[in-house]
Structure formats: structure tokens, C-alpha cells
Amino acid sequence: MSTSLSERTERSGMRVREVATRHLAAVIACAVAVACGTDGLAPATPAPSIGGTPSFQYAWAPNTPNCGESIDFEVALMPGILEVGQQGEAAFNPGNQTGGVTWTSSDTAVVKVAMMTPDDQNYRAYTNAVGAGYSCIKAVVMSGAPSIKTGVSRIAVPGVRVVPASIGGAASTTQGLTVAAAVAADGSPIPGGTITWTSDAPAIASVDLEGGVRLNAAGNTNVHAQLLGGSATIPVSVRPETSISGPTTAQVEGQTATFLASTVGCNTVCTYQWSMSWIDRPSGIFYERTLGTAATQSVRAPFDTYQYELDVVTTSNGVSDSDVRLMRVVSASGCTSRTGC
Question: Are residues 152 and 166 in the same domain?
């Protein structure tokens, strides 16, 4: 039996209204650790910081589930507390609201939001937790210009979130880590405390009391932040830093020059692979040649080319780095063959 558009809309509204009403109690009153200003939801909250001691204190926003906004309708979160990797729902009672609906998340590093199918009039959306913290889930109904109606609710994802989420860089450099959010299992904020920083392999990457990570030698490891039962793991990849030293002036074709690969951050041993490439001037053919595997490499300049490219790839403990040197080539006066001058 067919039904009219108005009947289908009314039934859809009743279904969503029932779901929203049943779960409105699940809407949490929580504080936001990360600024809600990214989508223009509310003035930005001061970011957490680590001072001169191995502890931190958040400047929490007021405990307002509506993210400090004036709203036209309630948004129900089902559930209001998500675990990382969990999917939930957001919904509101459409009532007499008409028009298109736009859903947004104020912090997509915490929760991502996606609309459901148009069959549900877009009054429901999926919430997907991707990292610890708080996010404001906002629904905007365009009821015809200039009438815009808004609903916002705050959602919590327990855990500890550290920024950046991973570290990669050259040996003998330092990078800093900061706790961006710390949320208890019940969705309440962890207002402060001592962070314990540890490294699985300090020889590769060590970490100090302030979250400063020193990249010591080539390899991959993890740094951990622990706080009042919550923890976060930050992958760290350290590469050896390689540079080519040797002649920098133009090389005469057919003559030999010697180059050296100097590397910082070798973890026990470094292996090398040299190669060179050039374009033959008369024919335009590209040539590439694999060379040696020692730290030192002698190179004979090709004939009939303007320049060649010298490359070296250094590998240590499964991590590689490379350097390139462009060498200009000049003709040798009196050379009559390609066997030398």
C-alpha cells in the first residue's frame, strides 16, 4: 500500500523523535580540552601546556553540554561517551524543522561525523571516535533564508591523546610532545597530574620529563605517555643523516673524482649504495649506473654530457636516508677518445 510523502515524513519524524527522546538522558555534560573554535562553535579554549615541571593543568571550558552556544533544539548522543574506534549516533527531533541538515564535528581528531542516508531526512548521523578528547557535534538546519536553526552537544572519548601522533626525523635532533587531551573512563576531565614518559629503546629515541624526544640513532621505537591510568603510544622513526662530501667544482670528462658519504646516527653499522645518472648530449639517451657499496666512491665523469647526478642511499637498522650531488662536466681539451685524457 503506497503512502504519501507527508505520511512518510511524519512517520520518520515520529521514529527519530522516539529515539531522540529515549536517549536524551545519555547526553553528557562534559568539558572540552581542545578548542571548539575550529568550526566556529564557540570561542577557543586555551590549549593545555607543559611548563617547567613534569605535570600539566588544563584550562577547562565550563561544564556545558551545548558547547556554550544558544541552541534551537536538543541533539541526543547515543552513547555520549565513545571508546576510540567505536561508532555511535547523533540525532534530534525534527519536529516542524524543514530544509537541509549539515552535521559537523568541532575536532575531527577526536570524533568524525557522517550523515546517514536521506531516507532518515538527515536528522541522524554517525559519530566515529578516532582519538581521546572532546568534540562538539553540531547540526544546522537550513529552514529557508534567513532562518537557520542549530543544535549542539558535546561528546567525550576517554583516553590520553598526545600531539603529534607520531615522530619522524633525522638523528641528533629533538622534537617535543604535548598531551592534548586526557579524559577519564566516565567521560570526565582529568584536570591535572604527573605524566610519566618512557621509551622502549632509549638508544634510538630517549624522552625527558617534559616530553622532549631526542632522536639518537637509526631505527623505529615507541614513546609512551602514562597519566592516572590513561596512556598513549607515539611511534618514533629515526633516520640516519647522510651527506656527500668531495669536489664541488666542474669535473673534466673522463677524469676521476672521489666522494665520501658522512653519516650521523648509524646504529651499529651503516650500509651504502651509490649510483649515478646522466643524459648523453648527442643522442639524448638517459643512462643510469649502479656503483659501489662502501662509504667512499670514485666516479669517472662521463663524456658528451653537461652534468651527472651522484646519489647515495644509507641504511641502518632498517631505516634509510639519501643525499644527491650534481656535478657539472666540462670537455677536455685535446681528448680524442673516450678512454681517457
Answer: no
- Segment among 218-222, 317-321, 337-341 with least mean pLDDT: 337-341
- 152 and 165 co-located in one domain: no
pTM of this prediction? 0.66
Cα dihedral angle (137, 141, 145, 146), rounded to 10 degrees?
Answer: -50
Closest C-alpha to 151, from 81, 112, 101: 101
CATH code of the domain in which 112 resides: 2.60.40.1080
DSSP 293-318: -SSEEEEEPPSS-SEEEEEEEEEETT
User: Read out DSSP for 147-199?
Assistant: -EEEEEEEEEE-EEEEESS-EEEETTEEEE-EEEEEE-TTS-B--EEEPEEEE
Q: Who wins on pLDDT, 234 or 66?
A: 234
**Alpha-carbon distances of 147 from 97, 140, 141, 288, 323, rounded to whole Å:** 10, 11, 9, 66, 60
DSSP per position, 229-243: TEEEEEEEEEE-EEE
State which H helix or E strand residue 16 sits in: helix 5-23
Three-class SS state of 125 = strand
Secondary structure letter of residue 335 according to DSSP: -
Structural domain total, the chain: 3
What does the block give as the cell for 179? Answer: 598531551
What is the number of helices (H) and of strands (E) in the chain?
Answer: 1, 26
